[in-house]
Amino acid sequence: MSAGRQWLRDAEVPAAALEAIRAGVLLHGRQQAQGSDATDIAVALYQDGELIAGSHGRTEFRRLYVNDLWVREDLRGQGLGGDCLRQLEAQALRRGCVDALIETLLDDVSEMYEHLGYVCIAHVHDYVPGFTRHIMLKVWTPRD
Q1: Residue 93 phi/psi, 5° resolution?
Q2: 65, 58 contact by CB (below 8 A)
Q3: Distance CA 126, CA 37 (A)
Q4: Alpha-carbon distance 85 to 55, whole Å?
Q5: Alpha carbon distance, N-terminus to C-terminus of the chain
Q6: Which CATH number applies to 38-139: 2.70.50.80, 3.40.630.30, 3.40.50.2300, 3.40.50.20?
Q7: Which of 2, 10, 32, 52 is the most buried (most CB within 10 A)?
Q8: CA–CA dist 9, 4 (Å, integer)
């Protein structure tokens, strides 16, 4: 081991180091793929000044990548998740995106995405014990 090197593990690793690792992986990947135009995208719904739903992700390479979609628990089942997703999609379409990618571990949520035009392109059964990872794509304009 070289002088001055020190391994940190688990909780010893500072949050800033974790973020630097994530950023380094993303930067390396983007350097491999020419023409990255990654831009954050988000929507948030407020009621009486309180956040009740929202979604965020990024657009890159003419694709919407949805990272998170959330609705306050007491308001779920009322269509707000679909509304958030449609709002995000509309922004992505204005940016020139041709498709959208979203993932979930919940079967009922994957069914909601299917009703919104997404198609499951991959499953990972028991991704987390008792849960299947659904990777879903919605195509607005087929790629060449």
Answers
A1: -60, -40
A2: yes
A3: 34
A4: 7
A5: 50
A6: 3.40.630.30
A7: 52
A8: 16
Q: Following CA atoms 17, 20, 26, 32 in sequence, which dihedral angle do they give, to the nearest 10 degrees? A: -110
SS3 98: coil
Other beta carbons within 10 angstroms of residue 43's beta carbon come to 18
**Among 39, 44, 49, CA closest to 71:** 44
Structure tokens at 108: 């009922």
Q: Across the chain, where does the E strand assignment appear?
A: 39-47, 50-60, 63-71, 99-104, 119-128, 131-139
Give the residues of the chain that fall short of pLDDT 50: none
Q: What's the 3-state SS for 44-59?
A: EEEECCEEEEEEEEEE
pLDDT at site 1: 57
Cα angle 120, 61, 27 (rounded to 5 degrees) comes to 105
